[in-house]
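Lab meeting notes turned into a lecture example. A postdoc, R.K., suggested we walk through two folding results consecutively so the class can see how the record format repeats. The first protein's sequence and structure tokens come next.
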Amino acid sequence: MATVTLEKLVKRYGALEVVHGIDLEVANREFIALVGPSGCGKSTTLRMIAGLEPISGGNLKIGGRIVNDLPPRARNLAMVFQSYALYPHMTVRENMGFSLKIAGMKPEEISPRVEEAASTLDLTALLDRRPSQLSGGQRQRVAMGRAIVRDPEVFLFDEPLSNLDAKLRTQMRTEIKKLHAKVQSTVIYVTHDQVEAMTLADRIVIMRDGYIEQVGSPEEVFQRPNSKFVAGFIGSPPMNLKDAEIADGRIVFANGESLPLPKQFADRVSAGRKVTFGLRPDDLYPTGHGIHSGHETDVHTQDLRVSITEPLGNETLVFSEFGGHEWVGRMLNPRPLKMGEMLGFCFDLSQAHLFDRDSGKTLRG
């Protein structure tokens, strides 16, 4: 059983604490993604799991066994790095089998493992090439193949796609998803790219300043963010988040313009409460050009002036001003728009979020 358990895990560099006693349970064969902005502690956490960084406090368990003081080679893990870390003078075949050779395995035992991994990753035709003869995507597949041949209980990925262009990243996401379906190992995957996390992971762990902000499925963290930070981090483009105050059953913005208080918050906030109002671009759309997900009575229509547009083919992002803030909406089945044009927008308040302005925590309950 390749469960991975973090119990009050701490990392310090001298007096500076960068990971603050985090708890996490990763199930056998689960795909977990650690995401967050630079400096949030996600890569440091991964390196502690790998044994590349000493643990300053708490326990790390793999398969129920405490491994805090075990060296990396004794943890039955395999790690895929951002930089590929291939030996340039070795062929693909030699790179993939090198760790097994170092472990003392015989050539006749290594060869079938390498062949099987190469077949899984569509590398068979490349086995006799050197890294300099490969594309970036091929090199990353070789790095994954080197991990597969070890037959580890846990795969660790440290931003493996960040060196690739956008098209290759999309292709490699598909490769990694297929790989997980085939090898059925536990995967812990670090990325700063929330699209990678959303498309690959069973659950997402969102980190901030060395703490875990929220753990949940991609759907949970997108639809029910626990905090303003999570709401702004997950989603592309990010959620519209605007400071406001509750008054007379309305959400009142700084310049006095307002929206009706969403029904789901009627019993949760009182007049004078300072809040942050949140609405995703999908739920703010020009009339007739969106998908309404609530009841008609939850839709507030407002005429707004178009300030800028970003055409994306089958949709257009539309920027406009309201309440003293800039908002972005998503226009499906778009038509050409002109800057300065007045346009009716639907605010789907059934999908709105409210956060406490000071703590940043959701008021959803």
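The second example is placed directly after the first for contrast:
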Amino acid sequence: MTQANRRRALALTAMGSALLSLSLLAANIQAAELRVMCYQDGNECDVLTELSKRFESKNADIKIIIDKVPYKTVVEQLPVQLASGQGPDIARVTEIGGLSKYYLDIGPYLKDRDYWEKNFSNTLSWMRTRAGDKGIYGLLSQLTVTGPYVNKTLFEQANVPMPGPKATWDDWVAATRKVAKATQVDAAMAWDRSGHRFAGPAISYGAKIFNGSGELVVDDGYRAIVQKFVDWNKDGTMAREVWAGAGGSAYRDAFEDFKNGRIVMYLSGSWQIRRMNSQIGKNFDWVVVPNPCGPAACSGMPGGAALVALKGSKSPKEVARYLDFLAQEDNYAELIAKTENLPAHMGLVQKGVNYNSAPEIKAALAVFSADIPRLSPLAYRLQGYQYNRSLMFPTVTRVTQAIVGEMSVADAMTRLSSDMAESVRQARK
């Protein structure tokens, strides 16, 4: 090769390297940045960050930025941002139906829409609020299930056998009363002061929740569980101060009562597992048991947090690609296992999730997981209903008034019906 040709070859090589550098720089400049507003109960945002790095390694044209914020920011600031046309591309929310008007339908951008419909069918509807809406707006990243915790040590001390998996609420009331009497604890049971917690037993006792027109209704099934619950509070079965000790619709849990060994059975939910494990420790043995049955079902209530796509995003295709990555079975299983949450993915519900957790946590998660297929379709429908608080909040107020004797159960239910109707009417304005 002549010197001139050699110089020409070197020049071409240098030009090619420069063009390649410019190409890579351009690709980097053009990479879509997706911002994810994320709060965490435990380590959810940390695990999401870990998965996002893996996503970026396979999708060089997308940069994921996880903005970790307090839960209060999601509740108070996110709605204001969205109303002003601002906000992130994706947000982790628990008020799933309340923000639905801001959601982006990623369905048209998904490669396999049927995969989502098959595996997340029970919870996709929570993000849809219009009749006939078939949009896919996000991914439930954490399913929660309500259910009871039991002080196993107290049962052993009282030498009373625990009821089996198909036991009724009446069976558990009888058993926990015996235990409470034998061990001289304050009360047999407590339920969180929450209309959401109340709804599972109500559905189990035959509450239809909706009438033929799809409107909320207080029927005989709902009245039946209210009467039982009021009676249990009056006869000492329930720790009366949990509901009677607060006013209006204010929330109060009974964790401290359970932690301190003052009650035998506590109706709360799967989100309490870590707290149980860390705060009770070796003070006593606690277990989760299946939701007790009523005449109609053996159901708790589902709930959870969702990663929702938002309309303000300038990169809808990239948002869909990222959420689709998280939704794939292996990635979703890793997210659920590392955060010690329950799966909303029906394939994983059937297969089970391999949790690398403490034995007590694994056992509790196993019981809650086994209860997922027992959840009534009505429970899913109520959880996804846009105005479910119109039933849940006044339930707490009116049932408490019946417990403390301000009004009869019949009057409380009449007032509940009118409260509920007015609340829905105001919300629809």
